[in-house]
Amino acid sequence: MSLTGEDKEFIAAAIAAAVTAAKNETVEAIATAVRAEMKGAEERAQEFARGIETNLLAAFHGHAKGQTARLHTAEITTQDMGIRIAALEERVLNIETRQRPPQ
User: Fold this and answer.
1) How far is CA 32 from its chain centroid?
2) Which of 27, 38, 39, 63 has its CA 20 to 30 A from that of 77?
């Protein structure tokens, strides 16, 4: 039993179709795997960025807390200095306007 030309063409076409289908399935499987890996990498990158953001916010909060304390101290010191200057001005004014007893 020998294959005719028509049989050979049919077999070649069937093999080509099977190979093409297998290639398409393989390409699709690879594409699906790559998409899954990319999604995982994106999620890891987002989580990493969130961690950095949290660390930066915590650092800025600590720095701002210290700066607020320093500013409050400076404001209190300035207010105290103003009160002391006002008291000194009042004392100088009292000395300047005091009437001297007659001699």
Assistant:
1) 30
2) 63
Token pair for 91: 């004392």
CA–CA separation, 97 and 16 (whole Å): 117
Q: What is the 3-state secondary structure (H, E, C) of the chain?
A: CCCCHHHHHHHHHHHHHHHHHHHHHHHHHHHHHHHHHHHHHHHHHHHHHHHHHHHHHHHHHHHHHHHHHHHHHHHHHHHHHHHHHHHHHHHHHHHHHCCCCCC
Entry pTM: 0.49
The pLDDT tens digits along the chain (103 residues) read 688 888 888 889 999 999 999 999 999 999 999 999 999 999 999 999 999 999 999 998 888 888 888 888 999 999 999 999 999 999 998 888 887 766 6
Distance of CA 61 to the CA centre of its chain: 14
